[in-house]
């Protein structure tokens, strides 16, 4: 997926996503003929996994129900949800899913066990996710060229977006740096264990393994890595280590400018339904979509009321 212009990557991302999302529509009956589940029938038991964001809180506490279903919501981290779906027991009927890992499985492994819905629990600008060793001499994005960049994994949605932004906006390609994977992740309690589809390494780049026993935060502090691409704040940054800082100190300003220029609000996660379940109950797609939408609306209303 490394093209001369990363804008082509963006087009491919949205093209594959659109195709995957369109396929989910094919499993559902047309809106005008779609039958709502009968209230007299037993409720469909569902196991649903997601982060417990403020926008999904109403699903967890029962204020919003998935119509026609008896849904049990479980809080899981994205790496663990990905592993369950792509390489695990597939015990989740509905689940939050990493968008780029899903795309890789869909395109390369003919993965069709789950179907995407246009529900995006996480959309995040990623300029804030670039960290530097303050003694590395990196002051601008262009200074990343020729440096060593650490990351836990390589092909997660967040890291893919960061590489795309750095290439498209600042001209630094994945081939211009040395990549360093860490054995551990200091934020594993938040993101879960890195899934297989978040560790796919393409041809044509230089990839090395960091020192055994060190996590991505250790690699950055020690200077083994000059910079770090990571969705979560590394341990050393949270602890206030002066050796670790953000490449963009005023990242909110940079991210606003990026959105103004491109109109892109990066998608990290989507929601997927087990395809066999969706074929058997095509009304489920709309029911799940409506429930997530209602829960988000309640969260927005609460934030507005609180000012």
Nearest-integer average pLDDT = 88
Total domains, how many? 2
Approximate helicity band: 25-40%
Name of the CATH first level of the largest domain: Alpha Beta
The number of E-state strands comes to 11
Strand order of the largest sheet: 8-7-6-9-5-10
Q: What's the CATH H-level homologous superfamily of the largest domain?
A: Periplasmic binding protein-like II
Which class do the helix and strand fractions yield?
Answer: alpha/beta
CATH topology of the largest domain, anyone?
Answer: D-Maltodextrin-Binding Protein, domain 2
Shape: globular
Give the amount of beta strand, in percent: 15-25%
Low-confidence stretches: 1-7, 22-33
Q: Tell me about the biggest sheet?
A: 6 strands, mixed
How far apart are the first and last residues' alpha carbons, in Å?
A: 43 Å
Q: Architecture of the largest domain, according to CATH? A: 3-Layer(aba) Sandwich
User: Helix count?
Assistant: 11
In N-to-C order, the SSE pattern is HEHEHEHEEEHEHEHEHEHEHH
Structure commentary:
This protein has helices at residues 6-27, 57-60, 78-86, 99-108, 157-170, 188-191, 216-222, 235-238, 251-262, 275-280, 284-305; strands at 44-50, 69-75, 94-98, 114-123, 130-133, 148-151, 178-181, 206-209, 227-229, 244-246, 267-274. By secondary structure, the chain is α/β, with parallel strands linked by helices. It folds into 2 domains: 6-124 and 267-305, Periplasmic binding protein-like II (D-Maltodextrin-Binding Protein, domain 2, 3-Layer(aba) Sandwich), CATH 3.40.190; 127-262, D-Maltodextrin-Binding Protein, domain 2, CATH 3.40.190.10. Helix 1 (6-27) packs across helix 4 (99-108).
């Amino acid at each position: 997926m490394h093209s001369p212009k990363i804008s082509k990557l963006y087009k491919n991302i949205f093209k594959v996503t659109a195709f995957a999302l369109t396929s989910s529509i094919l499993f559902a009956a047309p809106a005008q003929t779609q039958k709502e589940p009968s209230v007299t029938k037993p409720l469909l038991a569902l196991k649903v996994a997601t982060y417990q964001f403020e926008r999904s809180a109403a699903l967890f506490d029962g204020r919003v129900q998935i119509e026609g279903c008896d849904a049990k919501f479980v809080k899981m981290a994205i790496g663990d949800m990905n592993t369950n779906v792509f390489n695990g027991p597939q015990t989740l009927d509905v689940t939050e899913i990493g968008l780029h890992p899903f795309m890789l499985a869909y395109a390369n492994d003919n993965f069709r066990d789950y179907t995407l819905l246009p529900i995006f629990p996480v959309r995040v600008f990623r300029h804030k996710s670039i960290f530097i060793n303050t003694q590395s001499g990196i002051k601008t994005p262009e200074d990343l060229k020729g440096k060593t960049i650490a990351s836990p994994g390589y092909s997660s949605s967040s890291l893919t977006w960061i590489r795309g932004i750095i290439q498209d906006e600042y001209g630094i390609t994945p081939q211009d740096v040395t990549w360093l994977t860490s054995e551990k992740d200091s934020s594993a309690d938040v993101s879960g264990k890195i899934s297989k589809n978040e560790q796919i390494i393409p041809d044509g780049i230089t990839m090395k393994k960091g020192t055994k026993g060190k996590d991505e935060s250790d690699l950055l502090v020690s200077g083994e890595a000059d910079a770090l691409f990571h969705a979560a704040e590394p341990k050393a940054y949270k602890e206030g280590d002066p050796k670790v800082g953000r490449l963009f100190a005023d990242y909110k300003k940079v991210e606003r400018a990026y959105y103004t220029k491109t109109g892109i609000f990066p998608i990290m996660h989507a929601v997927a339904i087990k395809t066999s379940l969706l074929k058997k109950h095509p009304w489920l797609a709309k029911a799940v979509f409506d429930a997530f939408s209602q829960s988000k609306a309640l969260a927005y209303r609460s934030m507005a009321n609180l000012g």
